[in-house]
Amino acid sequence: MSALQGATVLVTGGAGFIGSHLVDVLLDRGAGEVRVLDNLVNGTRRNLEDLDGDGRFALLVGDIRDEDARRAALAGAEIVYHLACLGVRHSLHDPVENHRVNAEGTLAMLGSARDNEVRRFVYVSTSEVFGTAQYAPMDERHPTWPETVYGGSKLAGEAYARAFHRTYGMDSVVVRPFNTYGPRSHFEGDSGEVLPRTIVRLLAGHRPLVYGDGEQTRDFMHVSDTASALAMLGTSSGVAGQTINLGSGTEVTINELCAAVAAAVGRPDLVPEHRDPRPGDVRRLLGDPSVMRSLTGFVPQVDFREGVAELVSWFRSSPVSTTDMLARVEDVNWLARAGTP
């Protein structure tokens, strides 16, 4: 029997893009109860609507910084997946709040998880802790020189998770996903990612926007693969105290991404419009996935171009019009919005 079978699991940030897919996988693999703690700032109830009526699922609307919310969410939990955070572009216009949620919030979650004697704590970090690649592929010992407060705050969370393992013996594992994409990915506001934003623009008949020369590279993994890998790390043996990259080991430039989207949309004439580089932009990311493979046997299943075509189809099937979606895309989504301090 799987160690996940019948377990009580908490996913912070579980109403978000990756978190909601992880919840689906955990339930599919036999978890007894999956709770989500999410303040719905970035996440949405819509991502979890298919779970309405499933007695094994519960959404708790609350903030990880609130002690009462943590206590309620953690009661009886055996496995914790900690994904709740504010993103990279948010950190460019509100670095203090970004730090408070990502670093201080993680420290608070670790303390409460220890008090509740959870069996395993999976801290979901990010490849942004590395900054730009100094060599590639980037293994787990690659230097960490984050370009943004987001990367710095997530690195602080990593340090806390490792410290709780070494100081208190907590069974914690740090995982660094590279660039996840797929259905439910964010295109709007300061959460908007390059791939869904590009899809929305092309579906609306607009050229993609590229900041800089477009030769920046990323290591993309489909969300179904990311969620599957994260689920494995909640129960795999030999991973306690480890820091593990989660990437495909394949490098894609932003120019290549735009070409793949244009082909999937059927608009090869919509070539990129280049603008000034974005502040804090990482130049190169390419992960070395060998540690994850050796510890768990995990191998990604979804080819990038196939995944892009699937995501285009998903956006096309949306009940929201492309015009309405485009209106929610912020071209310069790293600046403070009106009314934002």
UniProtKB/TrEMBL annotation:
Coiled coil: none annotated. It comes from the Bacteria. It holds the Pfam family GDP_Man_Dehyd. Residues 10-310 form the NAD(P)-binding domain. This is NAD-dependent epimerase/dehydratase family protein.
